[in-house]
Design brief:
The structure is a single chain. With 371 residues, this protein is an alpha/beta fold. It is built from 14 helices and 12 strands. It folds into 2 domains: 203 residues, Isopropylmalate Dehydrogenase (3-Layer(aba) Sandwich); 142 residues, Isopropylmalate Dehydrogenase, CATH 3.40.718. The chain has a 10-stranded mixed sheet, sandwiched between helices. It has a two-stranded antiparallel ribbon with strand order 6-7. Helix 8 links the parallel strand 8 and strand 9. The structure holds 3-isopropylmalic acid (IPM) and manganese (II) ion. The site of 3-isopropylmalic acid (IPM) has 6 residues, from helix 5.
Length: 371
Amino acid sequence: MEKNITVILGDGIGPEVTQQSIKILNAIGEQFGHIFNYDYQLMGAVAIDETGNPLPDATIESCLKSDAVLFGAIGHPKYDNDPTAKVRPEQGLLKLRKSLQLFANLRPISAYPALNHLSPLKPERMEGADFVIFRELTGGIYFGEKTINEEKTYASDLCGYSKEEIERIAHLAFQLAQKRKKKLTLVDKANVLETSRLWRKVVQEIVQQYKDVTVDYMFVDNASMQIIVNPKQFDVVLTENMFGDIISDEASVLSGSLGLLPSSSIGTGTALFEPIHGSYPQAAGKDIANPIGSILSAAMLLEYFDMNEEAALVRNAVAWTLANGFVTQDIDPTNNYATSVIGDLIKDFVEQKSPSEINKKYMDLGKSTII
Ligand code: IPM
Ligand code: MN
């Protein structure tokens, strides 16, 4: 197969982690006879620096034409503490989500047995936890009307949802639940918000079409507590844009490191794949960031292309590095490897280099005692 991928390296550690994914995709291409063509485009602070625009038109055009988008990270500290900044890197990502109509964002959370000791939860609470957060991504308070009065003493952000916006993501979430443990939890604030009551009504109508799926309703405050006290109860969690933003960051640390988690955003056109983590500016350019969130995002991209065997090989390679202690600094502060070395080891595994060749590599790295 031949596929065109728009690559947006973005800000901070975005470039160095995404380069590891490209290495892996190229290795997959060679092993399985696929051709991946990459079109590199700008978005975020780097795009503001070069063009004045966080999302140049050329980037949107490339994404719309491509089969998928692989994205690194967005954000720069120089904008974070300046509420008066007119142009912000994040505007680029929000506009891209809207332009590509990426209305559903999937964030899978699962326990890695080798890393259970790093979870902030007791190992027995986390062991076996495996759920997916389905976050609505192009509506709600993020995209409603924003106002501020002339005196700059009153501001508002409108949260609105239409029945259609809820239905389209709810169907996808139910369909995924049918393929998994057949449980869906709608997270909302229906005791207070009108939009949440509409979400409940629409989901209650749709559930008739998915009789094999058990549905639970949970207020977001309770859900954020339940994610910590009993994460195993969840299978598919469906929620609106801002609640999804918040609970997915909360859930993302449960597996041991935010750096491990991938995500996909799907909609009516091209899909986008990105790690959950941010741009981590303190680590930028140091070759220390964890590339696994990006590499697992590339695995989701392969699945999206129906390259399931290929995706499974990437996941096995990742599991192998974690199980053997080949990890970055965020996971092991004393005995760790560089971003690019983890990328090379995963690539070697994908290329099925013989264990003796890989052993030699460990020796060269001076870490041969680990195996
Ligand atoms: C995310 C990020 C974005 C969001 C920011 C960068 C706009 O936090 O993808 O979760 O809030 O959606
Ligand atoms: Mn977020």
